[in-house]
Fold:
Amino acid sequence: MFDACANHLTENHYPETKVGKSVEPPNAVKFSRNNEFQATLRRKVDEFFASTGQRQRDVPQMYFKTAILLLSFAALYVLLVLVVRAWWQAVPLAVLLGLSTAGIGFNIQHDGGHQAYSEKSLINKLMALTLDMIGGSSYLWHYKHVVYHHTYVNITHEDTDIDLGMLARITPQQRRYWFHRWQHLYIWPLYGLMVVKWHLFDDFKDVITGHIGEHRVPRPTKWNLVTFIIGKLIFFTLAFGLPLFFHRVWVVFVFYGVVGIVLGSVLSVVFQLAHAVENAAFPLPREGTRDMENAWAIHQVQTTVDFARRSRLAAWLLGGLNFQIEHHLLPRICHVHFPSLSKIVERLCQEYGVKYNEHRSFRTGVASHFRWLRQMGRPLAQH
Structure:
């Protein structure tokens, strides 16, 4: 799939994945082999780390952040399940628990799943498994996100992360239904329910069918299957089993809903600000072929948008996902370096005439996503 330089840059080693068998179809989309931009980026990044003496992974502040996030999650969970009884205490704790869970996903799981947390594969695996603890599947996420999204970002029918089915039209090439006319209004509360659907339905469907979107994936076997089952048991125990010992059934389900809606809303919106906005491109292969016009790295920049780059708080809370361009170009580098690396990437884009897209704030990113949804909901909307 990728040429040698792209493999070196992304470390995905596609089509042979880190967790399973090759999933590359014979007619896979292919990118241009003009690697000058990629090679220059790699050289400049290597020079940055050589001159600063910093490590790309195994960064002390990342381990410290991990401890803060996991301890916060544990404390909030214990308080919500075992301590508080009044609803006015439980509701803010449930909201904070949802935000804490999102923090684990954005920071710990995401870096671990991309092999960006540590030089040691076991540590990366353990960090990636935090997704199983909070309700997802690290095995399926690898294919859905690391392979299909990061390889085919914003290519309709290839990037599974931009496919919301009939619920919404995200790209100009997706089918428009009459109710999409109001998607910019109704989608926001539905974002919150997507994690609930993920927890209770999506992973099980994907394992049973062996498909994620239009892509076939190998079903988990042996230890991957054991990990999938144990992860689901742990999550359902934390979400329902243990709370039912102390609270009524309806109370458990209501507060699971509160946590899930907060988590789903945050995860969905942060992702959409990077790819489903006005400045992001949605290119297709050349007509009659499976060949993309640009090289892989150029494609990543053109289909991705940064936001709130100057906010240290956003970078800390979101695991650097407000630096999505840098993350897509350098997915195996710990996110704590993205603020510094973004300056290198921006200068390189200027040198090569590649537009570097960003929104100055989170609010302007949300506004752009709103306008994009409204544009895609209109009849015959074109990008």
The chain has one domain: 4-377. DSSP finds 15 helices and six strands in the chain.
